[in-house]
Design goal:
alpha/beta; 6-stranded mixed sheet; Uracil-DNA Glycosylase, subunit E; binds uracil; 229 residues
Length: 229
């Protein structure tokens, strides 16, 4: 309980009778959220904790019924670099962290090539927070239901640069149905934040010759970031 809340309860003569139950998320710590519970606060105004709790309890689309747990994201909440994939796979569903399978190992190597490390000035998340069964692409409606969560994550992180990993991420973030071949090689704009599209690491594992193109995308990203810093 924060100091302001303690003072209000004391002034009302309600302490020490009222106590927050340990399992109840304290929505008052980071933002001055009054008496509202996360369910009553618009997603666009949630703080990090409220957003994470809301995602963890979300049942807005059918994906929650088949996944093990939600996969919110991982890394530095003030990161300059934001990497966005499409949705958790089997391993991510099991561990609750994005990009921890084979594709994740390649992503970590891609980060290392840019002198970056998961969790250090880097945040990683996905278009959808629940695993689509059989690793299929998330449907348009599933991505739409999840979009406000990602939008709020981006607002809270305020990254300097977004890297869209693969077609699903790129098309959803840019609201486009263009091919990845057309979307690569340019600097896009996501609500004022530069966005670069590259191949999804899982695709690169199957299409090794495309790695050279992904490398060019990463070099462009590094140059852009250096010019912004
Ligand atoms: N593929 C994705 O798009 N995201 C993950 O988290 C893992 C694999």
């Amino acid at each position: 309980m924060n100091e302001r809340r303690k003072l209000i309860l004391k002034t009302l003569g309600l302490t020490p009778v009222w106590r927050l139950r340990p399992s109840a998320p304290d929505v008052h710590d980071e933002a001055d959220a009054g008496e509202s519970s996360p369910a009553e606060i618009p997603v666009s105004q949630m703080n990090w904790e409220q957003l994470a709790q809301t995602v963890a309890h979300c049942t807005a689309c059918p994906l929650r019924k088949t996944c093990t747990q939600t996969v919110f994201g991982v890394g530095d909440k003030n990161a300059d670099w934001l990497y966005i994939g499409e949705g958790p796979g089997a391993r991510e569903d099991e561990l609750g962290e994005p990009f921890v399978g084979q594709a994740g190992k390649l992503l970590d190597n891609m980060l290392a090539a840019l002198h970056l490390k998961r969790g250090e000035n880097v945040y990683i998340t996905n278009i959808v927070k629940c695993r689509p069964p059989g690793n299929r692409n998330p449907s348009e409606s599933e991505a739409r239901q999840c979009a406000p969560y990602l939008a709020r994550q981006i607002e809270l992180i305020q990254p300097k640069l977004i890297i869209a990993l693969g077609k699903v991420a790129a098309q959803n973030l840019l609201n486009s149905d263009d091919s990845i071949a057309n979307l690569r090689g340019r600097i896009h704009d996501y609500c004022g934040i530069p966005l670069i599209v590259t191949y999804h690491p899982a695709y690169l594992l199957r299409a090794l010759p495309e790695k050279a193109k992904a490398w060019r995308d990463l070099c462009r990203a590094r140059e852009l970031m250096d010019s912004l810093s």
